[in-house]
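Running log. JK asked me to keep both predictions on one page so they can be read side by side. First protein, sequence followed by its tokens:
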Amino acid sequence: MTGKRHTETATLTASRRPEIASAGRLPLGALLALTMASFIATANETVPAGLLPQIAEAFGVSQAWAGQLVTLCALGSGLAAIPLTLALQGSRRRLLLWVAAGVFCVCNAITALSPWFGLTLAARFVVGIATGLAWSLLAGYARRLVAPALQGRAMAVAMLGIPLALALGVPFSAWLGQLLGWRWVFGVLSILSLLLMLWTHLRVPDFAGQRSTQRVPLRQVLKTPGVRSVLAVVMLWILAHYTLYTYIAAFMASVGLAGQVDRGLLSFGIAALAGLWITGVLIDGRLRRLILINLAIFVLVAFTLSVGGLADSTVYLCLVLWGLSFGGAPTLLQTALAEVAGEGADIAQSMLVTVFNLAFAGSGVIGGVLLAGWGAQTIPWLVLGLLLPTLLIASTVKRPLTSHPHTAPL
């Protein structure tokens, strides 16, 4: 019965996208809409961090309180992803993506116009919920748009919005905030979200949700071989990354580069774009190798930064290598989880969203405690301590993983 259902599903999917299945091309119009969605979702979570002084001044609160705009968005995303995915398994995919974009539009507009800090906090929590929904949809959507042999590349295109937001969106938002005021930044995000709604309606094919007989229980997905190992890698890798990224300004100040944070982040961002491009080219058939190589590079970077007494050029080289190693990480991790989860891929992706965002939120707390107690130069040591077990777990995953069903094992 399972084989028959799989055949029927494959036939139905091919009939919905015959031009993709036959020509073997990437449907760029649809995939770039997903790119825009991942860009806005990332911006929702990260842009406020570059505007905290202005937001704090506008509402008459401390920067610590203003920083809760970031925390609440991450918490909303992490807490809502699993229950929303379970509750909406039977809903049509394009409608859910359209609704998420609509919530982006409304909540960013409220943030841009709100005169009350409490209302602004509520808007960031709700936009976080929509962001969690969007993240749980994007990976599965990108994979369903193409033939199996192109799924890795489709994922890379869809996730291009993440490094674009980090490399260009955050610096541009900080510049725009200084030029016109921080509210304009969220106004722009609201307009982009409105355009995403239109683009999704016009160019993104629709897919049906899962029938009740096809749905895989949450507990069964979690027990699937490889799922917990990949989630552990996600937790540790993201915790390590964002602990360093969140406090990179403090670390660069500790090594005498306080005035070069913008250049350092730009170097990281450009390298991250290159890393994503490399991932997109090589991911099909080389999934496990790329994960291990990128983790090993990050380990080398953390160790080098821990040593201290580095030349400025060495610090910048570390930032570039770090960017290269992280640029493709979201694509690699989501692809790995989708492969081990099989029919439970959508539920597994919601778990990834939860783990990712809780790690993101936790990195700020852990890094802050470390910064206050022992100083910024101890942060790379923590990162190194997190990455070594991550590399070990990734190297011992037993479940065969491929970037699509016809490639060699992970």
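And the second, directly underneath as requested:
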Amino acid sequence: MTPFLIVERDGAVLTARLNRPETRNALTEPAHMQEIEELCRAIRTDRSVKVLVLTGEGSAFCAGGNVKDMQQRGGIFAGSPFEVRESYRNTIQRIPLALYELDVPVIAAVNGAAIGAGLDLACMCDIRIASDKALFAESFVKVGIVPGDGGAWLLPRVIGMPRASLMAFTGDTIDAARALEYGLVAEVVSAHGLLAHAQALAQRIAGNPSHALRLTKRLLREGQHMRLDSLLELSAAFQALSHHTEDHAEAVNALLDKRAPRYTGR
């Protein structure tokens, strides 16, 4: 069977492509979601990986749930209400737990439509860069369902509650320019140059020490639900660890010597 994810590596940067262009990279099959979870698990234990770029093959980033499967009660939508609930909990809801909590920075290169769960998937990433052809919608209400994969938690944290409410209650689609205005994406670039731009950004990020990237991301994540005093305690602990790494010493020495650093991941 053709993998759902095509994964390529360039130094410390991984690029993963959702590879079901015939369904606009819809998220319905449990095996596809398991691939995403397994990739995250592999990255967590591979300290040589510093950045992940996520994009889609074909014309879409991710079209969310497969509407035909919804109609036919197939894939994760099959079975009784209890079975559907369990299916969500054990398949698509494992993606935000794995991807959002991934230790390394994740860049979404949104090449086309990011609809429903596809928009939520983009919101699980740390940075979103959009093609000028990209479209975005929190469209669950349009098909009579609710955000089942964490969108009601993710989207307000990215664009704020008022705009998240507008998108979730209308289900309307916005273009890349409006997404930039909303703060949903950091940049909009030409469709032709999107992936190269995202990968160049990933390489810039990967030029920094691995431990500092992973610990900084953890602080950013924890800071969203911790009190300031608690975050300061965690920051002090992470800082103490960082000061005793070889890469920190190398960074300081390289800065003072006015040369490029040579990091080893130690």
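Observation for JK regarding the second prediction: The first helix runs from residue 30 to 45.
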